Amino acid sequence: MPNSITSFMTVLALGGLLAPGCVAAQTGAPRPAAAPSTAAPTQAAAPPPQPAPTAGQLAIQAATEKDYQHMKDLLGIKMLRPGVDGYGHGPNPVNYDESKADMHLPLPDPLRLANGKRVTSAKVWWTERRPQIVKLFNEDILGRVPPEVPEVMWQVVSVTHEKNGDVPIITKKLTGHVDNSGDPAITVRIDLTLSTPANATGPVPVIMEFGFSREFMEMLMKRFPQFKPPPGPTWEQQVLALGWGYAEYVPTSVQPDNGAGLSEGIIGLANHGQPRRPDQWGALRAWAWGASRALDYFETDPAVDAHQVGIEGHSRYGKAALVAMAYDPRIAIGFISSSGEAGAKLYRRNYGEQIGNIAASGEYHWMAGNFLKYDGPLTVADLPIDAHELIALCAPRPVFISAGSMQAGDGWVDAKGMFLAAVAAGPVYRLLGKRDLGTAVFPPIETPLISGDIAFRQHTGGHTPAPNWPTFLEFASRYLQVRTAPVLAAAR
Ligand code: GCU
Predict the structure, then answer these.
(1) Residues 332-359: pLDDT tens digits?
(2) Which among 184, 260, 288, 309 has most CB atoms closer than 10 A?
(3) 46 part of a folded domain
């Protein structure tokens, strides 16, 4: 993820990867530019001018609208409530006023069984309550992974001895070939790159980012030289300084990021190109599935300590990283950056992005079709879950929730809504013998809350993970360590 490019959307738009209207128009072009004053910008500038759509983009948009309509027809939905306008315009402007940020309470209780009984033991959490929560996310929110998803065969495409800064590294380019013998018309190749220190004496912890391919980033940087990486070591160099390795996983190599793509990618392949049923998986779960396949590869690579793999994702990939961590217990730690609505932010809080934005045609493909029901006829208060329960599914593993500042343009993700979700996940961590955030009081910006197993920090920058990398790595160092040969042998 480019540290200097503040918005994921900007990156995609610059790369010509967005079908116009697919996201920006539907969501009300969410991210106000940095405001000159410290006052919370409730009214931001107009949306940036969009380049004229290409024929390809128009085709994607048309196919997206068709799939979206098909899903609404399946659900018998005539009307959805529109999302909020991120630029503060129109009849339904985004709320950035804390005094108006009401919450539809109560939040669902993660420690109360469907039959109303309280969960008082770890055993009941694991055997009864956790499966209930997973089922709710599967049915109505994120969708079910089909029982038979084709196998992946990993291929090491190249091995390069190179340097990152002063550190000699070995970089492997990997491709995960998904078996498409059932439907040869659909090809899915998972794009993964792994770099480990060349002088490592054994397997090392690895942090895997959900991001863009190196080629794509190089192309962007060439085309837009004004976007320079910020000074100081990159996140990869910070990871290497600890003796760990890093990996880059490209979620869109698993599943395209639009509704049109639901007949392709792993979702399309598993469905033989047919449209989804309302309970089937959306892109967030597909991207998370791909991350789990990367874990499968790491388990076979002697350079990687597969018990010590952490993940990081930002924005929509922050949502996907949280989903991956919730569903795959092998993921040791997570850095969930600016994930916002459908990520770590409480749906029930009326601040920043709202459910109607996610249910719009630019984002609905992230979710199960059933999710649309909660934007009409049902409401957010009817949701059977909320974001704190997605965080709770990560327990007892450490998770770091991160956001930028309102003033620099990250209000859309609702830092406080994510903080409150992290607080509300606390009882589950405590039940499992772990530490919660340590406070229920929203801290001043730049305060690291990293002494528990759920961690939080809001930085003063914009929509970027960059300023929180050092804090995340300080937190992560409590859990991940390069293990010496005798320790490793004892662990086996
Ligand atoms: C939009 C969307 C967010 C998402 C973001 C991104 O702003 O509304 O939910 O996180 O795009 O991924 O860049």
Answers:
(1) 999 999 999 999 999 999 999 999 999 9
(2) 288
(3) no
